[in-house]
Design brief:
25% helix; 7-stranded mixed β-sheet; 15 strands; 338 residues; Quinone Oxidoreductase, Chain A, domain 1; alpha/beta; homodimer; Rossmann fold
Chain lengths: 338, 338
C-alpha cells in the first residue's frame, strides 16, 4: 500500500484564489475491495472549471468539498486490480483528482476508460483527445455550427480547448482567428496551430481597440465565437458579430475571482439576432465518441499539435493552477505525478 | 386628392427622444399610377422598434431617413383604386407610416393585406392579430419552446406583445408570469389576461429585490423568458432561470435612449446553460400564417382580450410614442387617424 500525496481544498477563496486555499496531505492507499483497481497517476489535468468549484455559490457543478482531495482528470496505469476487466499495466483515463494514486470502483460505468497510446501520447487524453478537445468539438460543431467560408473566432486560442477548436474549424473550411495573450502564444497559434490570424489582447487597453483589431482580422465579420474568457474580449467580439451569429459560452475565466464582469451592451444580441448558448461538455456525452474519433485522427496525423505546460510533482499543482487562471500556461496545463 | 398630414423625422435624438425630433407636414396625395391604391388610415400603430430606427447607429433596421414620413404599421380602407385586386371599401393592413393617407403600389407582394373584420376589430390587426401578436408567438413557440408545466415569464406583460404571449403560453399549459409597471397593469394582466401572477417592477428598487419577487411568483424557477425591456428586469430574471432555460430577446426598451445598459452577470448564461436568442419577427415570415390563425381564434373566442391605448389624431402621435417608451400606455398603443 503505497503512500499517497493528496492536495485538499482547505478553505475557499474570498476573492482571488491563492496557494493557501490548498493543503498537502499524505495518506495511505487503502486495500482494494472486489471490483476496485489502484491507479498510479502519471498526469493530472488542471482546468479553469476547477476555479468555479472552489466557490460555494450557484454554479453548474457541486462545489468542491472542503477537506477533501481536489477533483480533476488524470491519466495513469493500473498497478493493482481486483477487477477482471483491468489488468496491471493498462493505461487509463479517469477522474482521479489531485493525488498520486486513486482507488477506483471500476464496476461503475465511465469511472475508468482504457486508452491506446500507440498513436496518441498518454497525456493528450487529458487535452486534445480528452475533455478539452470534446469541449471544443461540441462548441464548434453543435453551437457555432460552422459553414465553409464563414469566420470562427476563439479566445484563449493557444490553450487546450482553443487549439483543438482551431484544427476542427480549419478542417471545416472556415477562416479561423484566435485571441491569445502575448506574442509567443500568438505566433504559436498561427505558425504551429494553423490559425489564419491571432490577436494579442494584451496590446489592447479596451474593447474598442480590440474591436478594431478584430475588424482587420475578420474582414467579413464573425459568424461563430467560442467564449473562454468573458469581460473585455466578449464585449469586443459582440461588436463584430454578423447577423445570425452564434456564440458558444464555455468559460468566463475573467470573472472567476471577483465580482461578475458585466456585459457592456447586451442589446447587440437583439440587434445582430445572435444565438448565445452556455454549455458544459459533460452533459453531452452522446457526442464524445464522434468527437474523440475526429480529434484522435487530427492528432495522429499531425494536423493538431497540442502543446503542454507540465508542472513537476503534485506539490507544484497549486501554483500551476493559479498561473493557469492568469494565462501563464502555454498550451494544456498538466502536472507530472508519478 | 385629399390633403395628407404627415409626421416626419426632423432630427435625431441626442439622448432621450423628444417631441422636437418630429415635424408635422401637410402634403397632397398624388394622383394614382396604374396598380396603385389610395388608403385612408384608420389607425397607426406605435411600437418600440421605432425608437431604434430614430438612431443612426448599427441596428437591424435601416435608420429612419431624416425629412421623411416616419414608418409604421397602419390599418385602413381603400378609398381609390387603380388595381383590380383592391376595391374601394376594402379593409387593409400595411406599412402606411405616420400619415393620414398612403399611396401603395399594390402589385408589390406583401405591400397590402386585406383583412376580415367579421370577428376581429380592425385595430387588432395592428396588435394581437398583427405584428406584435406574431412576435409573441415566434418568441414563445420557436425560442422559449414551452412544455406543459413549465414556467414562462414575459416583461411588459400588459402590452400588445406581452398580452398575446400570456394567452399563447396559458394555452400550452404553462405557469405564466408577467412583469409590468404599476398596480393597474398588474391587475389587468392577472384578471383580464389570465396570467397566474404579475410582478410590479416599480415596487423594486434593484435586481435583488425583483429577484426575490420572482422567486415567489415562480416557485419552480423560470424555463422561458420573453425579453421586452432589458436592464434591471433582465438581471433579475437571469438569477431565476432554470438550467437549460431559453430567453427570447425581442426588445431592450430600457436602453434605447442613452448609453447601452450593461448586463450585470453574463456568466449566468454559462452557469445555467441558457440559450439566449435575439430575433425580429419580420425575418420569420414563414410562421405568420400559423401564428395569425391561432391569434385570430384566441381573440374571436374571447381568450385573448387585448387592451388598447388610443391617441386621438395624427398630431398626438409623437407624445403618445414618447409615452410608450416610458410605459405610459396601457395595452397596444394606437393613434386614431381618419
Amino acid at each position: 500500500m503505497p503512500q499517497n500525496k493528496q492536495i485538499h481544498l482547505d478553505n475557499r477563496p474570498s476573492a482571488e484564489a491563492c496557494a493557501s486555499n490548498f493543503k498537502l496531505v499524505v495518506a495511505q492507499t487503502p486495500a482494494l475491495a472486489p471490483g476496485q483497481v489502484l491507479v498510479r497517476h502519471h498526469f493530472l489535468s488542471l482546468d479553469p472549471y476547477m476555479r468555479g468549484r472552489m466557490n460555494d455559490g450557484k454554479s453548474y457543478a457541486t462545489p468542491q468539498a472542503l477537506g477533501q482531495t481536489m477533483g480533476g482528470g488524470t491519466v495513469g496505469e493500473v498497478v493493482e486490480s481486483q477487477n477482471d476487466r483491468y489488468k496491471v499495466g493498462d493505461k487509463v483515463v479517469g477522474m482521479g483528482g489531485w493525488q498520486q494514486y486513486s482507488v477506483v470502483d471500476a464496476t461503475q460505468p465511465g469511472a475508468l476508460k482504457k486508452v491506446d497510446i500507440t498513436h496518441v501520447p498518454l497525456s493528450h487524453y487529458l487535452g486534445a483527445v480528452g475533455m478539452p478537445g470534446v469541449t471544443a468539438w461540441y462548441g464548434l460543431v453543435k453551437l457555432c455550427a460552422p459553414k465553409a467560408g464563414e469566420t470562427m473566432v476563439v479566445s484563449a486560442a493557444s490553450g487546450a480547448v482553443g487549439s483543438a477548436f482551431g484544427a476542427l474549424s480549419k478542417a471545416r473550411g472556415c477562416r479561423t482567428v484566435g485571441i491569445a495573450g502575448g506574442p509567443d502564444k500568438c505566433k504559436y497559434v498561427v505558425e504551429e496551430l494553423g490559425f489564419d490570424a491571432c490577436i494579442d489582447y494584451k496590446l489592447h487597453k479596451d474593447a474598442a481597440s480590440l474591436s478594431n483589431a478584430l475588424k482587420e482580422a475578420c474582414p467579413k465579420g464573425i459568424d461563430g465565437y467560442f467564449e473562454n474568457v468573458g469581460g473585455m474580449v466578449l464585449d469586443a467580439v459582440l461588436t463584430r458579430m454578423n447577423a445570425f451569429g452564434r456564440i458558444a459560452v464555455c468559460g468566463m475565466i475573467a470573472g472567476y475571482d471577483a465580482a461578475p464582469l458585466p456585459l457592456a451592451n447586451p442589446s447587440l444580441i437583439l440587434i445582430s439576432r445572435l444565438k448565445v448558448e452556455g454549455f458544459i461538455v459533460s452533459e453531452h456525452m452522446e457526442v464524445w465518441p464522434e468527437a474523440l474519433a475526429e480529434l484522435g485522427t487530427l492528432v495522429a496525423t499531425g494536423k493538431l499539435k497540442p502543446r503542454e505546460s507540465v508542472a513537476d510533482g503534485l506539490e507544484a499543482a497549486p501554483e500551476a493552477f493559479l498561473g493557469l487562471l492568469k494565462g501563464k500556461n502555454f498550451g494544456k496545463q498538466l502536472v507530472k505525478l508519478l
